Automatic annotation (TrEMBL):
Keywords: Disulfide bond, Immunoglobulin domain, Repeat. Residues 5-107, 111-207 form the Fibronectin type-III domain. It comes from the Eukaryota. This is NRCAM protein. SMART domains: FN3. PANTHER family: CTX-RELATED TYPE I TRANSMEMBRANE PROTEIN (PTHR12231), NEURAL CELL ADHESION MOLECULE L1-LIKE PROTEIN (PTHR12231:SF257). GO terms for cellular component: neuron projection. InterPro entries: FN3_dom (IPR003961), FN3_sf (IPR036116), Ig-like_fold (IPR013783), Neural/epithelial_adhesion (IPR051170).
Length: 207
């Protein structure tokens, strides 16, 4: 098997899900056989928005021939990763380069995990929601937009409210009685807004 690990391994993080890794080629005589390519082993060490320590799954990408760089797609935003590089010949893999640590930046969050609308009264509705399964960063706020829908399914004026990120419920007051409302709800990080979920609910006609 090859004797030497690739040197000077560098990682350039391109965005929250993509990084480029490059390395110096090993001396050909140290390959001790036919150079087949380089393998990059990489794995997520931890999510920076959660403290969960999961089973670590190593991923491997193979770059054929005498390439000295490669792309790592499909990374998770706002996470800490490690990687190393090995050279491959027909017999197997050489030693691993020293582990290199890199971090991906924040991304936009996934949609809130649920939105429930309960306790209708004449002029209020109670909203409850769950935080996004994948925050992909530090949540800065939730954005709630809502508008009335009349009997001919026309949409009325849109109202927008910003809600602190640590809240999980809200009582909306001063609504019109016996009116259907449409709600649009999403979470935000400093990067931007995640995908929204929508819900409809009706205030009651009379107590």
């Amino acid at each position: 098997v090859p004797m030497v690990a690739p040197g000077n391994v560098q990682v350039h993080v391109i965005n929250s899900t993509l990084a480029k890794v490059h390395w110096d080629p090993v001396p050909l005589k140290s390959v001790r056989g036919h150079l087949q390519g380089y393998k990059v082993y990489y794995w997520k060490v931890q999510s920076l928005s959660r403290r969960s320590r999961r089973h670590v799954e190593k991923k491997i990408l193979t770059f054929r021939g005498n390439k000295t760089f490669g792309m790592l797609p499909g990374l998770e935003p706002f996470s800490s990763y490690k990687l190393n590089v090995r050279v491959v010949n027909g017999k197997g893999e050489g030693p691993a380069s020293p582990d290199k640590v890199f971090k991906t930046p924040e991304g936009v969050p996934s949609s809130p995990s649920f939105l429930k609308i309960t306790n209708p009264t004449l002029d209020s509705l109670t909203l409850e929601w769950g935080s996004p399964t994948h925050p992909n960063g530090v949540l800065t706020s939730y954005i709630l937009k809502f508008q009335p829908i009349n009997n001919t399914h026309e949409l009325g004026p849109l109202v927008e409210i910003s809600i602190p990120a640590n809240e999980s419920s809200l009582i909306l007051k001063n609504l019109n009685y016996s009116t259907r409302y449409k709600f649009y709800f999403n979470a935000q990080t400093s990067v931007g807004s995640g995908s929204q979920i929508t819900e409809e609910a009706v205030t009651i006609m009379d107590e």
